[in-house]
Amino acid sequence: xxxxxxxxxxxxxxxxxxxxxxxxxxxxxxxxxxxxxxxxxxxxxxxxxxxxxxxxxxxxxxxxxxxxxxxxxxxxxxxxxxxxxxxxxxxxxxxxxxxxxxxxxxxxxxxxxxxxxxxxxxxxxxxxxxxxxxxxxxxxxxxxxxxxxxxxxxxxxxxxxxxxxxxxxxxxxxxxxxxxxxxxxxxxxxxxxxxxxxxxxxxxxxxxxxxxxxxxxxxxxxxxxxxxxxxxxxxxxxxxxxxxxxxxxxxxxxxxxxxxxxxxxxxxxxxxxxxxxxxxxxxxxxxxxxxxxxxxxxxxxxxxxxxxxxxxxx
Length: 314
What we know:
Layout: E1 6-8, H1 17-25, E2 30-31, E3 36-37, H2 38-42, H3 46-50, E4 62-66, H4 70-81, E5 87-92, H5 97-100, H6 112-125, E6 130-135, H7 145-155, E7 159-163, H8 177-186, E8 193-197, H9 203-211, E9 217-220, H10 229-240, H11 248-266, H12 268-283, H13 290-296, H14 302-309
Parallel strand pairs: 1-2, 1-9, 3-4, 4-5, 5-6, 6-7, 7-8, 8-9
């Protein structure tokens, strides 16, 4: 059974092995790969398989698959098992058009029976824990997350993660926090773990998810970008009753450690381009960062990044 409480969610373009390593160093119990195409995995796609690479020392990893039905899932299992996943997660929440138009992601909310069949295939073909990440429904006129949860559990899901928005909302508006409480109550006594996702931007949000809304744990998504410290803060409160927040220098030093890991794994050229979005997030809300942010728009090398943020060091 899944016992992890604090999980880094899959985020396309963000949760590569460098970011997963950073978040793990700050207390994430386990992390999830970027969304992996079951079809691509079944066809030995190099690009797809790159998403499954672990950071050095990463002994546990959840692999998130997306697929429109059980067929590509069944065909990808053999290749997937070569990577020794700790757990499999099925994406039923991605609202991006290029995913939805294939029938995958949140499009599965329109046909709950499909998730039952997908889950059954995974439980028949593997002995791994299985989780499903989903939304409230397709839109406000088709809220069916409890029915969907039941279908997933009937198929064999061991854990459920609710992003409490509809597909139509995307990432706009606010998450329906009462839906977390409703799902937790609905699954009470079933042995199925429930996790909350959506609008978890602070450790206080995470603690409220667990204590007030009775979720078994939290899946941190956008709230962890530029803020891997959210894992340490949340754990510190759980264990000591106090939030261990980072100082400015720790934020900047962590950002550079993140950059160095990206260089280590991908080379300075790619790291220089891809790190900009992360660095901007690290600097978000930091006083006096306007000039640094302007300099970062053209930063490519380690020296460029260091020069950009040096004026902010205390």
